Amino acid sequence: MRKNYAELGFNDKWFVLLGIPLLGFLTPIIYLGVRLHREPYYPWQALVFSIGITTVFWLGNRWIIILLRRKYPQLTQSRKRIVLTAVLMLLFVMVVANFNGISPPFWKAEPVPYPDLNVLGVINTLVIAGIYEVIYYQAQLRLSIQGQEELRHESLQAQIRALKSQVDPHFLFNNLNTLSSVVHDDPKKAEQFIQQLSKLYRHILEMQETTLITVKEELDLLQAYIYLLKTRFGESLRVSLDVPDACHEKKIIPFALQILVENAIKHNIVSTAKPLTVRIETIGDRLVVTNNLQRKLQPVASTGKGLENINGRIRLLHHPEMQYIVTADHYIVTLPLFPAT
């Protein structure tokens, strides 16, 4: 029976083992009116014959169902399959019901009337086929929903990978520029920079398939990134973190903080005279990134890809988007935090 699970939509072992004797037992009671406690009494011969004929009808119709589901497995072929199944079942019932010698002689005697096996076979077949068909369609619907969910998940992962791929070249390009400015002046520092860059990039590659990471993991990545930035800017860049431990297990979009810090550096003056200060803290269920606003004299052309990259990934997860506020002195971005579970 195991190899037929796919066609039936479920393991019908116990359904068959319990269904045949139960239907066989009930058939004489329903169709002949026999009773266990009063006349006309239920003859044991009727039970044996009823279970036997039910077994033939059940297993024969079951075989027809399996055969045609194998031949026409697609849902688009359902109409053709059902019509052919009904025709073959009817022919099968007629052949069995009218086979010479199958009529039980003990049912012809009073007080137990002889049933019409054609009617009996058709009714029992409708019951059996109806149960199998309902269970089959439920199984197909469940598989369809599961397949749609898996497809949606795969589509989501593909879109997230595409958005992440926009970050990596920009990230690598900026750090190679930093390295080129350090390597001649301080080779030892350049060596440490390369080690940190390698460490950070390894983490980025490991998280390519990750949709969300914990706040703690994101802060660890940010610390490594800040080390690279401090190599270039020194005390001209000041980053403060005020994220309580209670928020560390919540989830966040990977590399979001890196993008926001990088965005602040791109559009603002970073110098000893005008240090750029970035503060990262939590307010409610959001992570807030604030930097002092000191725009460059020659504004840098902005494509908006950094912020849209973050928002694009958040939208795919059906969560409230990132928000940002521009005041006279500060640029403030709030990121949603996802539940830990």
TrEMBL record:
It comes from the Bacteria. InterPro entries: Bact_2-comp_sensor_kinase, Sig_transdc_His_kin_internal. Keywords: Membrane, Transmembrane, Transmembrane helix. Residues 158-237 form the Signal transduction histidine kinase internal region domain. The chain crosses the membrane at residues 12-32, 44-61, 82-99, 119-137. It holds the Pfam family His_kinase. This is Signal transduction histidine kinase internal region domain-containing protein. It comes from Chitinophaga alhagiae. The lineage of its organism: Bacteria, Pseudomonadati, Bacteroidota, Chitinophagia, Chitinophagales.
